[in-house]
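Sharing a chain and its predicted structure for anyone who wants a worked example. Both blocks are below, sequence first, tokens second.
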Amino acid sequence: MFKLQRSLALSAVALLAAATVGSASAKDPETYKIGALLAMSGQASFYGTVMSAGIRQAVEEINAKGGVDGIKLEAIIEDHKSGNAQEAVSAMNRLITIHGVKMVMTSFSAPTQAVAPLADQHHILLLNGGGVSNSLVGISKYMFHNRSLAADLGLAAAAHLNSIGAKKLAVLHWKNDAGDSVVRAVRPYWEKAGGSVVAVEAVPQGVTNMDTQIAKIRAANPDAIGLWMFTPEVGLAVKRIRDFGMKQPVIGIEYTENDAKIAGAQGEGYLFINDYFAPSPDQPWSQQFATDYEKRTGSKPDFYAANYYEGVYMLAEILKRARAKGGDYMDAEVFKTVLYENPTFESVYGGQMVIQPNGVAQKRVGLFQVEGGEKKFKSFVTAD
């Protein structure tokens, strides 16, 4: 009887072990599906074209090397039609219900905000490589960004001013979330570095006259002026600051062709910070990406193409880390856990990027200066 019981027990253990192995292997999908919500049609389809090209190149490269632990990647790209929130929600539902994706790369602020509740509900990791608004921070507990947002651009601007010896900073900013978020980030950074903020003046978005605020800034006699706003107010602010006779360095976080038209000759010397991808011989990965991208598309990659290419590699690394934990790992809770266990990832821009506690990557960005009416790249900057 004992031998029979022992034999039955061993058989049960063997069956349990086999079931466990089968269960564990069943956790792996046939392919790792990465969804993307891009502007594939409409007035802004240029962005979808370059972003999707970056995604596809990364997927093909990773698959050519065997995928992630032998499992191939599959990109499933949906169209939000140049920023339509309703289209984005429909597309997100297709990605979830038809394709069963657990990771989605987003673009544009309105579509990203629209799908955030679905990400929380279904445990989908979101990675934004295009939208710049700080309103995207915290909209989902599974939201991350490898695009520098407005506050981080402001910090990099402050870091540059600190490097050239400025001590007294004056600020002119939009009175809204976009401008206020930069003020909240930069002020403590600046004061911790030993500087003082001598004036903080706010203007509403869409303002056509900011002379009162600029007069107060002139009276404060700063060493440098930070413009935490976006087009078209940037051009007007630069023009009027120079019209008031102020010669101090002026630095901002955007400068478009529209701003250049408004500022005219008064824009000469204006400094601004933005994402910037530039391949170089001392960064082999960035150079190889740029070379292959140009062969594939016939054009040089901009930072949007680089962000979405880099984003796929970041997601592949997260998948690898999550799979190593075992169990039912295809869930944004697990992805988030392994991301913050080591928030450092290789960046195609050069070096590494670190995901900060607010979900935004800190990586080097470009410093530009207006010279001869054209924006000229000067150097890379990182806010420490």
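Comments welcome. Residues 151-274+366-381 form a domain with the Rossmann fold fold (CATH 3.40.50.2300).
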